[in-house]
Design a protein that fits this description.
Elements lengths: L6 E6 L2 H10 L13 E5 L5 E6 H7 L14 E5 L3 H13 L3 E8 L4 E7 L5 E7 L5
Parallel strand pairs: 1-3, 4-7
Antiparallel strand pairs: 2-3, 5-6, 6-7
Length: 134
Amino acid sequence: MSPRFDAIGLVVSDMAASVAFYRRVGFPFPEGAEDQPHAEAELPGGLRLMLDSEETVRSFHPQWRPPSENGSRTSLALRCDGPNEVDALYEELVGAGCQGELKPWDAFWGQRYAVVQDPDGNGVDLFAPLPAAK
């Protein structure tokens, strides 16, 4: 047996808001996904991002409850084409009503880095390598 990484799954409280958010950052959810209890976007390389409504998860796991503490246990990292795209995408998302968690900055590990939250408070890291110092 040889398990292989196939998908990332998120439980969402508002499918339409989550599909809209992830479409805005480039995930190709099919038309009508916002109206479904389960939605998938196929990613390059064959991975999938899967969204399930809270109701869907409770249909097979009745005891499931969303995390109650502040903060998220999950984040997705999105590589941008360059430092300017990190800044622009962060501003676009915050301007569209998303919660900014960490404004863009030049991180000591060599990346332009920022964090926004999806509609359920999951962290979405935006990053790009910084040009090599001369």
